[in-house]
Structures are given as structure tokens and as C-alpha cells.
Design a protein that fits this description.
Number of domains: 1
Structural class: alpha+beta
Number of strands: 8
Helix content: 40-55%
Shape: globular
Largest sheet: 8 strands, mixed
Strand content: 25-35%
Number of helices: 6
Order of helices and strands: EEEHHHHEEEHEEH
Radius of gyration: 18 Å
CATH topology: Lambda Exonuclease, Chain A
CATH class: Alpha Beta
CATH architecture: Alpha-Beta Complex
Distance between the termini: 46 Å
């Protein structure tokens, strides 16, 4: 049985390609960039470029492709659990087993603390941006945006600023569309060696992250339009 409480009537938002760019075709008739596109286009990639030079393009592609594959599988185990209420068994593939173990860590650390209103929820801020968040619901009784993340190795808070901006962007969009007042967000993360981490966006920090998010939005549109 699904773990989702259908508190809001979430709508699907189609995607389309315009001049080679992937955009969300929103119900209001506007086509807008995704949250991840805006963040990727405006982030400082100095460290990423240095890392690629250090390991080489072939190895860098191999590492990122493998990480994306494990992350996708991990998300799928968690998404299926939320949708069905049943915990799947891992496949025989070593990457599937690893992803299952990582998903299990998140499930054990998180699921008893959350109520889920929607999974893979597509949201948009009229005429500005759109995107998909893993979960909307409550965390320990408080309305929140929530995302699952995988990582090759544990991260420090200062390395994951964009995670906080993602949570903020989705909270603002949900508030705009559904009249909520969400100012809290949480990233539930597991590393390849099965270390669980959690990054929390609390209401008292929200105005600061909101200001940073709008700065990035302005940078993006100033650069691309």
C-alpha cells in the first residue's frame, strides 16, 4: 500500500526541447528552465575542471557515469517503496546490490520521521523555473521539501550549497502554487561505503538561501536571454 497521503493534486509537467535546450512546458503556457539547469549554468566549476584534468577525461566520465547509474538505482528502490509500501529485493548485479544497501540506509534513518504528500513532484514558479523534487511532505511534523542523494564519498556542508538552493527553489514553487508556507528542507544522503548523512535547511536560514537562489536565477537569465 502506498505511503503517500494525497494532500495536494500534483500535476505532471511536460518537457520539451527549444533551440537545443530542455525546458519544462508549464500549465501557465510558459516554457522555463529547470532548477538544475539554472544551478549548473551559474556554478563555479573551477574545482570540477581541476578534477577532470587531474584524473583525465576518460576516467572522469567513467566515474560520473557509474555514480549516476548507482544513484538512479538507489532512487528507484526508494521511489518504489514510497509508491507501493513494499521493499524490493536487490538484483544480482553488484551495482544494484550496492544501490539497494545505500537505499536501505536512507530508509532506516528517515522513513519513520516523515509523512509523504507526493513523490517525484513536479513544481514550477510561473514564468521563471520548474523542476522535480523527490518528496514533499513533513519531517518530524513540519512541512518540508525532501531529496535523496548518493555520493561517492561523504561530503562537507560547504561543498553542497546547491543542495540547499534546490530545496529552497522547490519550497518557493510549492508555496506559490499551493498556498503553503514551506521554509524547511532536508537532503538524505548515503555514500558508497554506506555512511548516512543529512543536510538540513531550517526556517531561520531560509531567507538567506532564498536570496542566494534569486541571485542565481538573475545570473542565469542575464547570461542566457
Amino acid at each position: 500500500m502506498t505511503l503517500i497521503i494525497n494532500k495536494y493534486d500534483y500535476k505532471e509537467i511536460k518537457k520539451k526541447s527549444v533551440d537545443g535546450r530542455r525546458l519544462y512546458a508549464c500549465p501557465d503556457g510558459n516554457s522555463v528552465a529547470s532548477v538544475t539547469t539554472i544551478l549548473d549554468a551559474t556554478k563555479d566549476k573551477t574545482h570540477l575542471i581541476a578534477w577532470r584534468k587531474r584524473v583525465g577525461d576518460i576516467k572522469a566520465k567513467e566515474i560520473t557515469t557509474e555514480a549516476a547509474g548507482v544513484g538512479t538505482r538507489m532512487h528507484k528502490y526508494l521511489e518504489d517503496y514510497v509508491e507501493s509500501g513494499e521493499w524490493a529485493k536487490p538484483g544480482s548485479n553488484p551495482y544494484a546490490k550496492q544501490a539497494h544497501n545505500m537505499a536501505s540506509q536512507i530508509k532506516e534513518n528517515v522513513m519513520s520521521d516523515i509523512e509523504i504528500w507526493g513523490s517525484e513532484v513536479q513544481l514550477y514558479h510561473p514564468k521563471i523555473y520548474a523542476g522535480t523534487t523527490d518528496l514533499v511532505g513533513t519531517y518530524k511534523g513540519q512541512p518540508a521539501i525532501m531529496d535523496f542523494k548518493q555520493t561517492n564519498k561523504p561530503k562537507k556542508k560547504e561543498w553542497v550549497e546547491d543542495y540547499y538552493l534546490q530545496l529552497t527553489a522547490y519550497a518557493l514553487a510549492h508555496n506559490e502554487l499551493y498556498g503553503t508556507d514551506i521554509k524547511e528542507g532536508h537532503v538524505f544522503m548515503c555514500s558508497r561505503d554506506l555512511q548516512y548523512q543529512q543536510f538540513d535547511l531550517w526556517p531561520d536560514e531560509f531567507p538567506n538561501w532564498e536570496s542566494k537562489w534569486w541571485d542565481r536565477v538573475y545570473q542565469y537569465y542575464d547570461k542566457h536571454y
